[in-house]
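User: Teach me something about this protein's shape.
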Amino acid sequence: MKPADQQRLLADVEAFCEEIRPIEELCYVEHRFNDQVLPLGRKYNLLGMPVPEAYGGRAADTVTYARALARLGREGTGVRTFFSGHTSIGEYPILTWGNEEQKRRYLPAATRGEKIMAFGLTEPEAGSNPLEMQMTYERQGDHYLLNGVKYLISNGGIAQTIVTFAYPKGRNGRISAFIVDTGNPGFVSEDLTAKMGMPTANTAMFELTDYAVPAANLLGEEGNGFRIAMGTLVSGRISVAAGCLGVIEDCLTEAVQYAKDRHQHGKPIAKHQLVQEHLAAIEMDRVATEALVLRAAEAKDASAAEPANTDFKVRADLLAAQAKLFAANAAWDAADRAVQVYGGRGWSTLYRPGRHLQDVRVCRIYEGTDEILKLKIAAAVLGKEYEAYQ
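Assistant: First, the predicted structure itself:
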């Protein structure tokens, strides 16, 4: 991506963020879905940032896209999650494993905002181990029939297209991936609003009952679904890590300004040593997270440039896991410390640190829990023969 194009994209992201902030703050206080993220994303042409120009996107490299997501993350994990769901794990698998006809049919519409995307992997009884999923498919003539439930799906209640995973009926084969167009008979969704955070983002469950999916919507080769899902999570984990960087940046900005403005014991609390300890820790969270996120993004770009290089692929996968694990915990720490700096006001969602604290907690769960990522990292250190689950 040319430097001038990078600057234009990041300028558009900045303009989007400035316009969405007052809307997001009102929606958060009122605990309602922010329906302006999509139209404003369309206005500033942000709905296909890493998608090639041939399909209507901005052709951002992973490093530039990570910087954009970090900026979006400052506005809230809910705002960033929409883009991650739509682009990082929605458009990405079609771009990476789709055939040319599928790319032409879905990606331009997605970049224009005509199709909201989502990623349907998690089920009520299949979270950290997707191999336990129960959704099935059966070939009937020129289509497949899908049956089952997907759960806790970002954008799941607003998406027109969901990349969905299922076993062959009877579970006598491997998982396959499908591009599912929603809204036809046999599709039912329910928004999940009883969440600890992210009230402005859509999270839903959906059920497919003898749901007909054209054979042309099989994504990749039959039986290759698990590999597609795991490959997509590399993109998703980098996007979560980048968003967490934005959370840390916003917590630092807010805490520093508040510490300068708030007076107790006859001086700004910024002059209190224990307050400075919190600010120093948040800054360390920020600088360490930024370094690791950019390193993971660079590794992803290197792997994309040489897709046949197995070493590059393994390195990108591991760094994405490391970045996501570290960033999610650093963001949780930064938000907690920012709340502490705010004192009583930190306990109110009228102020940004409290909202970040509620929202960012999910980042230690989705796209791979802390525990799963630690096992993955430990296996990389010890060797595959020491994997906890084989």
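Now, about its shape. The chain has a mean pLDDT of 97. The CA atoms of residues 33 and 200 lie 4 Å apart. If you'd like, I can walk through any region in more detail.
User: That's plenty for now, thanks!
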